[in-house]
Amino acid sequence: MVKKDIDKKEIEEKIAPLCDPLTNEQRDYLLNSLNVYTFKKNEPIYSEGEFPTQLMCLLSGKVKIFKNGVGGRNQIIRVIKPVEYFAYRAHFAHQEYLTAATAFETSIIGMIPMKVITKLLNDNNGLAGFFIHQLAIDLGKSDERTVNLTQKHIRGRLAESILFLKESYGVEEDGCTLSIYLSREDLANLSNMTTSNAIRTLSNFAAEKVIAIDGRKIKIIEEDKLEKISKIG
Questions:
Q1: What DSSP designation does 176 have?
Q2: 123-136 mean pLDDT
């Protein structure tokens, strides 16, 4: 983790929805309290069991939120894309972190002390509405992911994960190659399956010409077929 100099105007533009409910004085207080850090690929951002002290906002890069499972196997709970907020739920719940976070690639993260956020919440009801909205969105996504990962079969889960990554991070200039390159283990952890099952199912999708694989790159060839596989589970 390396501290980074910031351009306050640029940062304010990126976190505009968070700043919108605030007065000019409150906005200055928030921006003066914000620090920006660069995390290298695979560098931990926070760990399970730590006590939360910062509201985090991903300004650029890609981050995975995961939980340590049985036998050392991780389950990726969700992925974070710019500009999304994370690492604050545990503070509001008065809990330690139930998950951990790691950078998928070099990522720039803005951090605001939760004591600053708490003060602003006490002074500004509009900011409370912002966090209620964010938590409601996250809960909805979590509920949908739980159903998908527990009720769908392996093919449906992997197809859903590929589409989920496309929706989260988009595609490259060719319009079909995912702009995130996951290891087979990470893809398996995202899809709630073993790595061997992920490798075998990816190979089946490639043989069926639904996708094409080039190392860690995944190109979606037949998105309609992938959506159908995802829906029928």
A1: S
A2: 92
